[in-house]
Amino acid sequence: MALMPVDEALTRLLASAAPLPTERVPLMDAAGRVLAEPVVSRRTTPGADVSAMDGYAVRAVDAASLPATLTVIGESAAGRPFEGDMLAGTAVRIFTGAVMPAGADAVVIQEDTLREGDLVAIREAATPGRHIRRAGGDFASGEVLLSPGHRLRARDLALAASADVADLTVYRRPRVGLLSTGDELVRPGAGAGSHQVILSNIYSVGALARAAGAEVTDFGILPDDMAATQAGVSSALAAGFDVLVTTGGASVGDHDLVAPALISQGVELAVHKVALRPGKPLMFGTYAHGASISHVLGLPGNPVSAHVCALLYLVPLLRALQGVEVPPRVPLKPARLAVDVKANEMRMDFQRAQIVGEQDGLPLVRPLPVQDSSMLSVLARADVLLVRQPHAPAASAGETCEILPLED
Known about the structure:
Blueprint: H1 6-15, E1 22-26, E2 39-40, E3 50-51, E4 55-58, E5 68-76, E6 90-94, E7 106-109, E8 113-116, E9 119-122, E10 132-133, E11 144-146, H2 154-162, E12 167-171, E13 175-181, E14 185-186, E15 197-198, H3 201-211, E16 215-222, H4 226-238, E17 243-247, H5 258-264, E18 268-272, E19 276-277, E20 283-289, E21 292-299, H6 303-321, E22 333-337, E23 348-359, E24 362-367, H7 376-381, E25 384-388, E26 400-405
Parallel strand pairs: 5-6, 13-16, 13-17, 14-15, 17-21, 19-23, 22-24
Antiparallel strand pairs: 1-12, 2-11, 3-10, 4-6, 4-7, 5-9, 8-9, 18-20, 20-21, 22-26, 23-24, 23-25, 25-26
């Protein structure tokens, strides 16, 4: 079976990823969610001209030439505006955020004044508009502040709140089920023997999924037995996850049972084997249950391979399910090589690498000396993945290259 190019596999994966249904959530629960409807301001902010500083509101004409001494006729504070009109030769004590009195067109900051009783001496000439925040200077009523497909950050929630918007329409979080396979696997802390392997994939893959906005359920470990694997897959599919992720058993060895188990349960596999390193034994497909579709992603068992494949395929899939526009290609960034690198063969290579400096405004990267797909210590030390295209020729230090950030 010919290996599928990395970007073609991503295109096929995303082709069936329609956005999930929407729901309305309060602002306090909206962080990290993806907007399904625009946030439209319900008010103009500021609602009136307000002072940007503590000081005195004046008519600039009265304080344009020095010396100038004005009579203080009142006070304007945030939430308690001065109700009268400014007359010639008068000033109003004003505080940051307070509404400008009618007739005032400048603020003299308090450091540039000297107050004695009801008189204030102006020590810095006033100019029209000085230290004033104009009405609508931030945004206007009816203005679209945030658009659909935007993942909400902390500062976005503050913006929505200030626009008098109390709740938001967002896409439902994808539900992800994680299913591990392998007789050799044991849980962390269980006291693994020398012939056993401690399960690690679900923790990195689960963390990537949660960071991408998903709700994650650990569905357990299946033994290398066809009947047990079929039963486990059937149970996981019946749970109705939006995405079922399996780790291990995705190759074609005697103990690699996941693909035949999935097919036996009605999963239509679209991809099985992708031209990338690490992570060639990757598969995905769909499972229809009623009007709904579950996406099935089979990751390799090697922990580095599983992490890289989750970064390349699971994260974009989860974003697309939440209405985020995802390009059907790996989002690479430019960098420069810190060392010479060899020619690459037929698979797109994602090498663990460190950023060791900067050159011409680009990060300078060096691949780590060991690239074994089972070595998590190397992955943990990496800053980025150095990407080598299929059949890329040898390259020298200083040449441009491509990198993929490790998003977590």
